Automatic annotation (TrEMBL):
Keyword annotations from UniProtKB, A to Z: Membrane, Transmembrane, Transmembrane helix
Keyword Transmembrane helix attached: yes
UniProt organism field: Shinella sumterensis
Membrane-spanning segments: 60-81, 87-108, 120-139, 145-173, 185-210, 230-251, 287-302, 314-333
The protein's name: Uncharacterized protein
Domain of life: Bacteria
Amino acid sequence: MRLVLPIGPMYWDTFLYIDAAQRIAVGQMPSVDFAAPVGPLGYYLFAWGLKLFPAAQPLLLAQWSLLVVIAPLMAVVVAEVSKTSRGLAFALLIPALAFAAFPANAQFYHPLPGVDGFGIYNRQGVILLYVLTCGLLFLPDGRRLALFCAVAGLALFTIKITGFLVGGLLGVVALLSGRLSVRTALLAAVAFAVPLAALELATGMVSAYIRDILQLAALNEGTFLPRFRTVVSAKFDVIVPAVALAVLLAWLDLRHRDRSVRLLDSSTVWFCAAMAGGVIYETQNTGSQEFIFIWPVLLMIYRRVAPLQKRTRVIFVALAAFCTIPTASAIGAKTLRAIAVMPLYEQPDLSRLRNVGQVSARHDILARAEMLDDHFASFEPAYEDLARHEQMPGWQYYAEPDNQLQWLLSANRMLAALETFETSNNIRLDSVMTLDFTDPFPWILNRTPTRHVQIGRDPSRTVGEMTPETRQAIEATAGVLKPNCPYTWARRDLQATYAQALQGRKVIALTPCWDLLLRPDLQAQ
């Protein structure tokens, strides 16, 4: 089924998975042969899924491929919980499936309906934290819990290391609270470490991955405090009632403390740990389904609150609703709006882009995107002036669907021109690379991607100085594609980073918005 989705903010982030799939297909390994901002699991699941479903919509495939991990883990939890309460089992399962399926973040970046193409691995990390929290709270201590934690920990580590650290925080709380025995924790640690050790010995991927993360942290070391402020301000609607709920829980724990419950297994400790973990996770992410893993904690707490007087239960339920409904309603509403407009939106002709072109847009957005190439090419000095001031063409340029669609339309025209160039000159570029943030063209053209080049090339956050290995790999690349529309400081800085490796290439103007930088030994008519 060739599903078509309404294009939304930063849709081109999805192409990182397309890029990774082609690299994996030609034998490259994440972190070993190319730097990546996150772990390898999501890329491998996408690459395998693309073989199974060659006509898949890439955003949905990237979003849903993690169900291979999530579904078995949730099945273990549901099977255990349903022995005593089917209602509780469904209350845990239904949100897990919804959050895993919905391609939407809690934050709004554009008022028009559309899917969120960015933050996919952030959503994957937070749903894994949801699953891990369910296991820690509702599975009995023992070997099954040890294996559950090991699998969830491996998935978190190889998806998003920030999620693994937050999962570690929750694991420590479970250990100190007595829900996780020392013996079970040691078994989980061994079951977690052995596969990683085997992977490291066979490929060197684990140490390379850690090295990538440390380098990325060094490039972004000054962003933690501003991002902390962003989380607090963006999620004010959740954090304020959460503070009130924490005060209520502390009062209930003091007044109605159950002597059979350990102090560190109190409702206050679990809720505060989950909220703290949510804040920590979101400081390292842009776009996510924030704080969804407090839901299993709230269900656990409700079972303790249920025997208390009605007024207490009502206050707890009201505050819990304020903590959860804003996030759930935003994610659900965005997804349902996108589904509702699908029959009404138009699909442009993007036939040369394969799966990447399975998007649609409102007719006026499509009309605007169609004319942007000519506009950008005709008024290039204006955009050069913006770049000199370190400004983008728009305040939320990458979030605007017309600009995302313009990139696709422009790329489709470029590919037609590239095919004509190769045919008329009897040349086939066996390897290609793009001087832009995202690079789906090796996969679209079925060519070899350039090794030792970062996936998701953001000169302000992810790209460091060019290494000798990177320079050598770029120099060996047959054709380098250079986008010109619009001129931005990000493209300018990226081209400057790789400038030495691009010296001596012949510049072929494929379209007014795209140049081909041809390797010197390849002759064009």
